[in-house]
Amino acid sequence: MFSGSMVALITPLDDNGEVDYASLASLVEYHIAAGTDAIVAVGTTGESATLTVDEHVKVVLKTVEYVNGRVPVIAGTGANATHEAITFSKLFSGTGVAGCLTVTPYYNKPTQEGLYQHFKAIAEATELPQILYNVPGRTGVDMLPETVARLAKIDNIVGIKDATGDLSRVKKTRELCGDSFIQLSGDDATGLDFVLEGGHGVISVTANVAAADMAQMFKLALSGQADAAHEINQRLMPLHKHLFVESNPIPVKWAAHKLGLIQHGTLRLPLTELSESAQPVVTEALKDANVLL
């Protein structure tokens, strides 16, 4: 259902901080042409934390409109209040959204039982396929494989985006959840190894600026051509690393703007523009990865 190179799409904003839908449409075409396998709209990289509810919904629906059925669109629907995550999931029912990506509740740090009950309630409130999202570095809570296994028994919970960088979890999750449970990496630096260990793909920040390379790399990996995939990954490693030199999506938005993929690199407070000291670091990473400025 979901596999390969899937982009965690940035949300372009104009100089006034409003959503730039012309740039969003251009980004969609860039990814379709590059061979990106799916688009995640308004996840963490899409600045879900600072969009209003109306903006959040509109960006997802406009992405679906611009994609026009050519690749799956997955909506970010996470929240640290269960009722809010349910509301988002229901809003996207019947809209053409292929599934929901729902992050573990941030800040309030629920127990494993709380995580189970949270995701169970969301899944039972919608027919849309649900992808769990575990990113303890940003949320302060780690959903353990045993909890994932309990959730995998619910019909429309179909997979997980794992951003822990812990490659041992691929095998453990497969043993607990079965081969059909979709495992997606949320960590670009280990994403290729994640797939070679048996994962199905990646939801990528790097793909925002190196979409064709990422798409090709994961096609090679999933077809058993590991050596050729490693060659591409080695070239992209500076991006995997330095697109996180400051908090995501600060560096990748700056890079996308410099590459002409979006008209402006605007972010909303409390995020600020990439610092002057970090700009040469990202520039050098783009050059090293052969992503031309």
List its salient traits.
eight-stranded parallel β-barrel; 8 strands; 293 residues
Spell out the helices and strands N to C: EHEHEHEHEHHEHEHEHHHH
Global structural class = alpha/beta
Uncertain ranges:
none
| Largest sheet geometry | 8 strands, parallel, barrel
Q: Number of domains in the coordinates? A: 1
Could you report the average pLDDT, rounded to the nearest whole number?
97
Distance between the termini: 34 Å
DSSP helix count? Answer: 12
Question: Which architecture does the CATH hierarchy give at level 2?
Answer: Alpha-Beta Barrel
Question: So what's the overall shape?
Answer: globular
Helix content: 40-55%
CATH fold field value: TIM Barrel
Strand content: 5-15%
Q: Could you tell me the radius of gyration in angstroms?
A: 18 Å
Quantity of strands, as a count: 8
CATH class: Alpha Beta
Question: In what order do the strands lie side by side in the largest sheet?
Answer: 1-2-3-4-5-6-7-8
| CATH superfamily annotation | Aldolase class I
GO molecular function, one term: 4-hydroxy-tetrahydrodipicolinate synthase activity
Active site: 133 (proton donor/acceptor), 161 (schiff-base intermediate with substrate)
Protein name: 4-hydroxy-tetrahydrodipicolinate synthase
Site (Part of a proton relay during catalysis): 44, 107
